[in-house]
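Let's do one together. I've listed all components of the complex below, 304 residues spread over four lines.
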Amino acid sequence: MTAASPGDLVAEQLGRLLLRSTRQHLYLRLVAGVDGLDVATYPVLSGLGRLGPTTATHLASVIGVDRSATTRYASKLEAGGLVRRTVDPGDARATRLALTPAGTTALTATRRALSAAMDDVLSGWPAAEAAAFAASLERFTNRLEGMGGVDR
Amino acid sequence: MTAASPGDLVAEQLGRLLLRSTRQHLYLRLVAGVDGLDVATYPVLSGLGRLGPTTATHLASVIGVDRSATTRYASKLEAGGLVRRTVDPGDARATRLALTPAGTTALTATRRALSAAMDDVLSGWPAAEAAAFAASLERFTNRLEGMGGVDR
DNA sequence: TATTGTTATACTCTATAACTATA
DNA sequence: TATAGTTATAGAGTATAACAATA
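Okay, and this is what the predicted structure of the assembly comes out as:
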């Protein structure tokens, strides 16, 4: 028996984080009270916030669902006034998805809620550990992405 | 404009980790080649490994799906010879779910694959940073669980 | 009466395939 | 011919409700 490597420890925790219960609880809390937003459409809203205005195909690859689901969720958000469609200036085949002001407001609210929850989780940590963890986590996520585990 | 707090940074990375693409890529890689195991039944197998023999109701609460789905996935794994059902000694209503030797073997294989992937992600990190990250991540997950974001 | 496991049913999420328009 | 978006359809995944057995 060898001692648990950092990889073993990280593997176990990542397994717990990726459980359905984790995202369900978290997403439900985030979208609660935001009109026109639900667990399925949240990644679309969030992805648009991260990418800025972009096409459905690109957004689909980033959030990990295919074009057809992405365009349907975008329609749902559009119906709720959170997303706007415009023709891509450079390619008439493509549609440019973008947040409306209401969409930006909704996204800001969910981000604030998530950040507050994370601040809560990190409360009581030594400032140095919290900062180091945040930096390492970003490094970790970027590396995962590079390996194909997380899309950009 | 204030600087991004650790909570802001962690929130952003957690959002990326919880995307469908992350778990889909990871889970697909883990269950590939393991007979009788798929993305839906993997949490059941993994949960049984973490908890040891337990009831469907308890397992369901841990993996974040309800009793009926858990029992159906358990049946699938049982059909594949990875899980065994026995009557709970202390309560004849309850069924004790447990891994078979084949189930343990399959779980070991997936764990090894995940740990190897994590070692790969952490390769090139200073040993101190990797160890600190692993420890902080465990602390983080435990705190999330305590807030209801992750079930035990 | 309450709880466990299970099954029947329905609903949600998502992918595949087909269609239209543009490149 | 290839690609973007969309829509129609089908298939997973999951929850709700109802049942039988036991507490």
